[in-house]
Amino acid sequence: MLDLPAPDTLYAALLQRDPTYEGRAWVGVTTTGIFCRLTCPARKPRPENCRWFADPAEAQRAGFRPCRRCWPVGATAEGDRTVTRLTAALRDDPMRRWSEADLVAMGLHPSTVRRAFRRHFGQSFLQMARDARLRGGVQTLRKGAAVIDAQLDAGFDSASGFRSAFQRLFGHAPHHLRHKADLRADWIDTPLGGMIAIADDDALHLLEFVDRKALAEGLRKLSAMVGGRIGLGRSAITDRIEAELAAYFAGRQPRFSVPVRMYGTDFQRRVWQELQAIPAGQTRSYAELAAQIGRPTAIRAVARANATNRLALVVPCHRVIGADGRLSGYAGGLWRKEKLIQAERAYA
Q: Where would one find the signal peptide in this protein (predicted)?
């Protein structure tokens, strides 16, 4: 309880089903012996029947059983059976061309699926499926094949549809990335979704989840800063960050040692360096981060620097939370922030 907000604050969040406390607080109901997320749709208990916990293990040690409606022992999305069913299907067959008719054939309502995926991931299931298919196109282009071959490998009937999807992801049409370049972009798979890594022979320049809305704009800015010298491919640095990501998610390596190139002002780089100093399994508030860099009044500027970080996980901006313990904005999606913080508790 020492790390949690006041019980009145938590109870108000429970009544409002406030998602910003996901991954930070759980409630045990003494009359039922069950513990839940604060977003659980079940009937709300009286305040005197609530006990508050900082993690599911603590609730279980106190004798509470996990709720079967909100699934409090996993990430939020894992409690939604529709989401887990479809994400498993996407993992098993990432090149499948999904349609709303396929969802109906599975007994699912497309609008229900759309709302569930947007709530958990910020995008629809069909968009996630398109991004997964794009991976095949990226691999084909990287091997030097024609754009039409990459389009077919990605499962797109329309050339314009493939170009549009590719440009939305990379910020450039596919033929613009075919030339030889100093910086090379490639796709890396992780347990939390695909990531785009851009590296040269000396450093990692960008690492972002493919569904981040600002990814294309970030790539365009990086391209402008380096004179358009970005192509498809990988270097030893790409292989290195891929191996370090695998070790990080497997629980073997809490820190990244890959050399990075940070593009930003002196202030932004100071914030990003301080983020790298936060140990895995710990969090900081924006105010604490501002104080640590000697700028205690620059809380908003620190938050903006967080938002402009282009090296996800390596510069761990997901470890910054609200002063009241709530999960605040994360460009990779709050569901990822929740899962990353939960996973990093093992490192603590």
A: none
Residue 31 near residue 49, CB atoms below 8 Å = yes
pTM for the model: 0.66
DSSP 205: E
Would residue 36 show up in a list of annotated catalytic residues for this protein? yes
Residue of 36, 50, 67, 70 marked catalytic:
36
Helix (H, G, I), strand (E, B) or coil at 252: coil
Domain that holds residue 308: 266-344
pLDDT band at 24 (very low <50, low <70, confident <90, very high): confident
Count of structural domains within the chain? 3
Unique residue bearing structure tokens 């604060």: 38
Q: Which one from 40, 50, 70, 317 is the annotated catalytic residue?
A: 317
Domain-located, residue 176: no
Domain boundary among 107, 136, 171: 171
Angstrom distance (rounded) from CA 227 to CA 264: 16
Q: Is residue 97 domain-shared with residue 48, that is, in the same domain?
A: no
Q: Please report the pLDDT score of residue 2 as a whole number.
A: 47
Dump pLDDT digits (tens) for 73-125: 765 555 667 888 898 888 888 778 888 999 999 999 998 888 878 766 767 88
Judge if 96 and 159 occupy the same domain: yes
